[in-house]
Amino acid sequence: MYKMKVFNNTTKVVKDDLEQVILPNSRISIAAGYFSIYAYQELKKQLSKIDSLRFIFTSPTFASEQFPKEKREFYIPRLKRETGLYGTEFEVKLKNKLTQKAIAKECADWIRKKVTFKSNSTQDNMGGFLNVENKDDQKLTYMPLNGFTRVDIGCEKGKNAYNMINKFDAPFSSEYVQLFENVWDDDKRLQDVTEEVIETISEVYQENPAELIYFLTLFNIFSEFLDDITDDVLPNDATGFKNSVIWNKLYNFQQDAALAIINKLETYNGCILADSVGLGKTFTSLAVIKYYENRNKNVLVLCPKKLKDNWMTFRGNLINNPLEKDRLRYDVLFHTDLSRERGDSAIGLALDRINWGGNYDLVVIDESHNFRNGGTTNGEFDEKENRYLKLLNKVIRSGVTTKVLMLSATPVNNRFYDLRNQLALAYEGKTELINSKLNIKSDIDSIFKQAQRIYNNWSKQPPELRTTDTLLKQLSFDFFEVLDSVTIARSRKHIQRYYDTTEVGTFPQRKEPISKRPKLTTLNNAINYEQIYEQLAGLNLSIYTPTNYILPSRLSNYMDLDSEDSRRLTQSGREEGIRRLMSINLLKRMESSVHSFKLTVKRIYGQIIKTIKTIEEFRSNAEITVRDIDYNDLDLDDQNIDIFWVGKSLE
């Protein structure tokens, strides 16, 4: 009875089935575009015992083409088929294991004994399939089959969205067996290329001069980039930035990063430097800033308030500025300055008079993960932008083309969308500006959506299946293309492995953590941490939840109850979030010192007393000062929570 079986090459793999059906003295016939020694390696145990294997290259490979020169196939696809014998682009991991030589020798010996290759020498299209014939008159066919590679038999994930293979038995398989026989015997269409295949595979294990290996290595590493390189995207040494103080203070791996960043900024308009903590992201970015300032470009640095001293020192005429001779002149603003309408910036610029649009050629965002949540608006008419949208609309989209360099050791928290939102600053939130520049098949939003879906499914798997290798195999090539194009992320192990670290020395060894639980005080019967937390959790902090005291009949006077924003998260919900945030930050103050905790508690207590007094003294025509608190501007990771300093003006 006729049976058909379907393999998705994910949970049901063709290789596993072939291991069962290829028996001693089996006869195998394959028509496909590729043959790889690594596919042979996967089935070596079974293939070594077969009677014979016949292989037809479905497109001209090693053959003399029998059609006019002007119609001949472009050289590169044919070259890939021929070099694919010893590994396709998806089998690069196996190539890196340096076992290729031994595998090639075994495969060449096997071909001499068991295999005959022929190639289509015409322009006729041929479909791919694989036939297995056994002595008991069992005939099986697998199709469609693009190639005899590890991808096609299910051992690797290729670029295809799916890789479905159907398996037929008689009588349908008999038709494919007869089809192969008819094509195989057509000398006008096929040309024997067995010797050419053996010769090509033999080149892998032959001894070659060191010079040849060196030049072949360089060619294979850089060939795909040569056509894309132009002087427009390479750093211009004529600017003199390599004579600067900052450039000569960089280690070799930091100099490489600076040059790569400039190339990515010029090519894609943006870059995320995500090197591990301690590898000098700030100094690397200062070299990039110097390059653009030497080209008479205006630079804006956006940083958290806690990093003010770093950036202010390097631009100032100060005795402790090691880069004073470079005369860096970039502007400095805090992340929270984007949420403010008045007051002065860190360098004394009046926020209400800053020329946001049309003036900054480069924006450097330190701790860029603080912008990972993207943009939202609020207000009755969506008139108030959060800091992300203000940066996007007022700085990046308006005026001159603005390049964006983002610095973060942790650009992703727990969502790939975190990375997408940061990258969107580089292409102004308009996907068409980046899609055309990247070598991707899908658009960038779809790539991140798919990656997030894969991650969500992966995170739900049991621990034994939830491995890094499993996740990487499922992510698409387009996703890695995006990462390679617009991000630089290196660890200390990477630096030690690929760079001469003589100047750097050895990185400090991370010791095993020592857990200690000291008491808050040596005083007997004193309050402990748990009791303090319980006390803080019990605080009403009603000053942050005023809507709890508005009559239900009056709520519509203070908020639009029918808006989409109100349906997602109510105003009272936002205020409750602020209240909890304040409780947590009181504990964070205790991390600094008991004295800091004491000062902050006194400050909050004083503000509560002041508010109660204001309420008690309120008269119908009295003027009182009201401050609008925007929950979207409170960012715990940023640690720039100005509202936490209760009673203090932002100005």
Q: Would you tell me the structural class of the helices and strands?
A: alpha/beta
Number of DSSP E strands: 16
User: Which strand order do you get reading across the main beta sheet?
Assistant: 1-7-6-5-2-3-4-8
Largest sheet: 8 strands, mixed
Q: Per the principal axes of the C-alpha atoms, what is the gross shape?
A: elongated
> Approximately what portion of the residues adopt beta-strand conformation?
5-15%
GO molecular function: ATP binding; helicase activity; hydrolase activity
Protein name: DEAD/DEAH box helicase-like protein
InterPro entries: Helicase_ATP-bd (IPR014001), P-loop_NTPase (IPR027417), SNF2-like_sf (IPR038718), SNF2_N (IPR000330)
Domain Helicase ATP-binding: 262-429
Compact summary:
This protein has 24 helices and 16 strands. It has an 8-stranded mixed β-sheet with strand order 1-7-6-5-2-3-4-8. A 6-stranded parallel β-sheet has the order 11-10-12-15-9-16.
Explain how this protein is built:
The protein has 651 residues and is α/β, with parallel strands linked by helices. It folds into three domains: 207 residues, Endonuclease, Chain A; 202 residues, 3-Layer(aba) Sandwich (Rossmann fold), CATH 3.40.50.300; 116 residues, no CATH class. The chain has 24 helices and 16 strands.
